[in-house]
Amino acid sequence: MRMYxxxxxxxxxxxxxxxxxxxIVNGFTNGQIPDYQMSAFLMAVYFQDMTMEETVNLTMAMxxxxxxxxxxxxxxxxxxxxxxxxVGDKTSLIIGPMLASLGVPVAKMSGRGLGHTGGTIDKLExxxxxxxxxxxxxxxxxxxxxxxxxxxxxxxLAPADKKIYALRDVTATVNHKSLxxxxxxxxxxxxxxxxxxxxxxTGSGAFMETVxxxxxxxxxxxSIGTMVGRETVAVISDMNEPLGHNVGNALEVEEAIxxxxxxxxxxxxxxxxxxxxxxxxxxxxxTSIQEARSMLEETISSGAALAKMAEFVERQGGDAEQVYHPxxxxxxxxxxxxxxxxxxxxxxxxxxxxxxxxxxLGGGRETKESxxxxxxxxxxxxxxxxxxxxxxxxxxxYGNDKEKIKLAAQRLAMAYEISQKPIEKLPxxxxxxxxxxx
Length: 438
Ligand code: URA
Hints:
By secondary structure, the protein is α/β, with parallel strands linked by helices. It contains 17 helices and 13 strands.
């Protein structure tokens, strides 16, 4: 086989075989295929697309390019969830403890934040002493013992995806549905769960801006999962504004704890319950979504999910007292209020700008090497469609550098538009795609 011929074949819009895709993925991962040929191939895929069969074969070639986790030693049906990325998205911190308190094994690998969206691993490091590095044995043992462990993705999990993504990032080939779907699913499949629930975000600041695009991406991912024998469901959720009130690492942990204490913001609670319900049904611990939902609500009202959070934090070396006293999480030195500028209704939010405001404060990473400040961030006091009055508080900014606070405040004020007419509140859950919908 020659890479040149395979690029030509894809350029002509022909279908590549499993062997050909494996040749490309393996050759690129081990350095035999150079970046310039892989770039040309990715661009050919971008314009010619791939069939479903090609997408599955590409996904599996990437999933098998490094270590794959075998979770068979953990009893029960293992569940995982993945979000395509959003601002203020802290559902993993809520779902993990809820499900674990019901005996569902959650063996989760998460990423760090980059750019304007945060990562679960960074958020959890807000607990003093919390470690996200566990050996495979310790990870498995923890899931067996307390049903929940969360670690950073190991370097050798789907290394082909890591290398291909880095190339896509600089060749304008990120934003392609089959490539996104195979990238996400390769990591989820390599991480070993039996049930995969996907949270596909749509709206400003999301990869998929329209619901139609999000649906198409969701269908591709559910098809891949189904074709390789993993129970896969996708929930399409709104990302036209941050999820919940808090954006920033420790602030998001504090808000997640609030949900587990029964004081959660409505949309954040709703999305967490929806995703977790599908995971609970997938794990065969509930027979219907309604039953799953009431079991999950009970984990909050009984305090079981909060207790599980404390157990999980302690087991990974963190200070469990901070779960019961979130005011002991890292706190920024200064705070500043951003005021509403005129009367009306909040009509649009440039979500990405809110994420960038948090990034400016130091809450996110510009590059993989940047350090982050866990204590900074934003608490939003208003949501889209709210009636607002000039001079009331739109948001509070928490920071450690007055100059950065000023810049973040300007950014935040520009993120929102105010209309003179009431606007309709958009539904949070747009659609749910299961294998029956394919
Ligand atoms: N997230 C991923 O993991 N891969 C993509 O291609 C896009 C988002």
